[in-house]
Amino acid sequence: MTYLLQAFLPLLSFSKKFSSPSSRTLHRSHSRAICSKMSPESSPLTHTITLPVQLGEPVQIVAAPGVSDSEFRSAIDSSLFKQWLKNMQTETGILANGAMSLRRVLIQGVDMFGKRIGFLKFKADIFDKETGQKIPGIVFARGPAVAVLILLDSEGETYAVLTEQVRVPVGRLILELPAGMLDEDKGDFIGTAVREVEEEIGIHLNQEDMVDLMAFLDASTGRRVFPSPGGCDEEISLFLYRGHVDKEIITQLQGKQMGLREHGELIKVHVVPYVKLWQMTADAKTLIAIALYEMAKREGLLPWKS
């Protein structure tokens, strides 16, 4: 099945809206709420909540030194924190069967992206009731993200499109898939994927041509990929695009400078032969996408013949 790659588009800026839900309630999938109680005004940096799965065992939320009152309240209000609490209480969550108990959360750091929280760091005191042992619970929360494996067929060869970005946490330049964090108030995974490709690569992909690689996973996985679940809550949705282009497009993409400078993005586009892709990157997103694509191809699950 042949898909057409649309013409290059000018770099676009997209405004992100954030609407903060109430800090008083958090709804599970079956609409049960968390009961919460703010501390007196004399102690503004503590907060108490009661989770439906452990009634009678209130959880104290505490701000570490250096976390301001506004940051603390923003953290409690954030979708990052509320989603973490929700995950803990799902059928496969840590607190679901009553064997463990969440007693305290220490909010250690808050990084704002404009008016919304981008990164949140906290420590959770979770205990195994049978042994009394504490479970390691340091959390770096950044929420859901998306990435796209773009394959372009040209003159009998298939190419993959990558970005080279400065990644300060690892101190290196990394070749990786075009990717981005999800707007927390929208939940538009495929729309975010298309937008990130436009911003980081400079091309527009039709949503209807995108293949959701997560759809091939068993439902028990939540149909998300967790790159580093031992320390980070990040969950990634991976998409696939495959199209036919003239060799001129491959040449134009190679080395192209992209990225939203106002967001601190310094991106260089790389186009590499797909057969060599698995050897050319240390990016977990890319390697996972290759594995999912190859397995889906082997099982005949893709909407076209490879």
Automatic annotation (TrEMBL):
Which branch of life, at top level? Eukaryota
Record-level Gene Ontology MF annotations: ADP-glucose pyrophosphohydrolase activity; ADP-ribose pyrophosphohydrolase activity
Q: Where is the Nudix hydrolase domain?
A: 141-294
* Cytoplasm listed as a keyword: no
Q: Which GO terms describe its biological process?
A: nucleoside phosphate metabolic process; ribose phosphate metabolic process
User: What are the TM regions of this chain, as residue ranges?
Assistant: none
Q: Which InterPro entries match?
A: NUDIX_hydrolase-like_dom_sf, NUDIX_hydrolase_dom
Keyword field: Hydrolase
Instruction: Give the protein's cofactors.
Output: Mg(2+)
**What PANTHER family does this protein's entry cite?**
NUDIX HYDROLASE DOMAIN-CONTAINING PROTEIN (PTHR11839:SF18), UDP/ADP-SUGAR PYROPHOSPHATASE (PTHR11839)
The protein's name in its UniProt record: Nudix hydrolase domain-containing protein
- Organism of derivation: Liquidambar formosana
